[in-house]
Design goal:
The protein is an alpha+beta fold. 25% of the residues lie in helices and 29% in strands. It has two domains: 2-115, Aminotransferase class 4, branched-chain amino acid transferase, N-terminal domain (D-amino Acid Aminotransferase, Chain A, domain 1); 125-272, D-amino Acid Aminotransferase, subunit A, domain 2 (D-amino Acid Aminotransferase, Chain A, domain 2, Alpha-Beta Barrel). The protein contains six helices and 15 strands. Helix 4 links the parallel strand 6 (125-134) and strand 7 (164-169).
Length: 273
């Protein structure tokens, strides 16, 4: 069952019009959330989504409150008889009409839920994807439907038997992984690219910066990262709302330790709960 504008209906009954602006122009944003007895970081997800809609000049309905968002997600999970870990995807798109200039800025939404079977991998190898860049700037920080570079880099990783790819911006600086933010560890310093370099404003990234801002052992730095630094790092890990924290164990000829990443994961898990 899908949740379409608050109405639950079988997937077979959802008919998307060929004029759908998300389909025709990528005029849509999405949010991916994780549920396990509760929706993790629902407040952060909600406000990021609202910020994205405002950036794209979409009209937010007065009824679309955080409580409404949470209730509709729970309603969809319950209707699908799901328990344990659940992956939720919410797509919000401008209503049909117009060409590049929309006829309206009003929105519709679809909520999908499915059982989440993901577990962290012990061995995880990455490689650079250099065919096409992510453009730096704030538009790249929001989760729009325009994710073709992420799709192509994921295909590249699959064809070449890598677990993930690292994306670069037009300045040839490290931005993120195909589906996650990236962090490099140098000693006790954890470094991640700044948002203006083009990385997604990830919820786990946001919470990591919050959880560790006053930590006595680890310090966080947001700064531009050169691809050459990937080989200099002691450890590398990636994060998103589904995998949370995944250690990287290999990049080219370098094998990485995971000791500090596991320590960070333990601290993060204790704080998130």
């Amino acid at each position: 069952m899908l949740n379409y504008n608050g109405k639950l209906l079988p997937k077979s009954e959802l008919n998307i019009n060929y004029q759908n602006r998300g389909l025709k122009y990528g005029d849509a944003v999405f949010d991916t959330l994780k549920y396990e007895n509760k929706i993790y970081f629902i407040e952060e997800h909600y406000f990021r989504l609202m910020s994205s809609l405002r950036m794209l000049r979409m009209k937010i309905p007065m009824s679309f409150t955080m409580q409404f968002y949470k209730d509709e997600i729970i309603k969809t999970i319950v209707k699908n008889n799901l328990s344990g870990k659940v992956r939720i995807r919410v797509s919000v798109f401008r209503k049909e009409g117009g060409l590049y200039t929309p006829s309206t800025n009003e929105v519709s939404f679809i909520m999908e839920t499915e059982t989440l079977n993901y577990t962290s991998k012990e061995n995880y190898e990455i490689e650079l994807y250099k065919d096409f860049p992510i453009l730096s700037g704030l538009l790249s920080t929001i989760k729009t439907n325009n994710r073709i570079v992420n799709v192509l880099s994921s295909i590249f990783a699959n064809e070449n038997i890598y677990d993930n790819c690292i994306l670069l911006n037009e300045k040839k600086n490290v931005v993120e992984a195909s589906n996650a933010n990236i962090f490099l560890i140098f000693g006790n310093e954890i470094v991640t690219p700044p948002l203006n370099d083009g990385c997604i404003n990830g919820i786990i990234r946001m919470k990591m910066l919050d959880f560790f801002k006053n930590n006595d052992k680890f310090s966080f730095t947001e700064r531009t990262i050169s691809p050459f630094e990937l080989l200099k790092a002691d450890e590398i890990f990636i994060s998103n709302s589904i995998i949370e924290i995944q250690s990287v164990t290999k990049y080219r000829k370098k094998n990485y330790s995971t000791i500090k990443t596991e320590e960070l994961r333990s601290i993060f898990d204790s704080k998130k709960n």
